[in-house]
Amino acid sequence: xxxxxxxxxxxxxxxxxxxxxxxxxxxxxxxxxxxxxxxxxxxxxxxxxxxxxxxxxxxxxxxxxxxxxxxxxxxxxxxxxxxxxxxxxxxxxxxxxxxxxxxxxxxxxxxxxxxxxxxxxxxxxxxxxxxxxxxxxxxxxxxxxxxxxxxxxxxxxxxxxxxxxxxxxxxxxxxxx
Length: 177
Fold this sequence. Notes:
Elements: H1 2-26, H2 30-43, E1 67-71, H3 77-91, E2 96-100, H4 105-115, E3 121-124, H5 129-133, E4 141-145, E5 151-156, H6 164-174
Helix pairs in contact: 1-3
């Protein structure tokens, strides 16, 4: 059963990459989204827009002084594509908590072992307490936590987190230099 689920995830990832490649080849203007992404990402951020504290939870202890919270599921192709960027952020000494609620824990363990997500702290939200607190209605959903333990920004949908200016922005918000 686990092998079938992992195979489905691999198929979703390959399909997503294939569709993205087709969009770039046949619709060149699709690429302009990514050219403007870095500028839009930083210019459209209003840190005052979100200013509520993260809940006092053992699950979020590692980011109480700044970092990133990601809500995802392994069956979500966009989430899985975003995970490599999230791992890259975590490798830059920014604490990451990746919250999942209805994915099989065996699949998460296989992701850690086989894909190499070694910098991310995976948290199982078994009673969906965190999902309710953060009012998660779609995934992936990413929250940037500042050094005071407050949410500064919410990112809905899949993003690419490989740009240095984006990483520096997150580091500055969370004082992780």
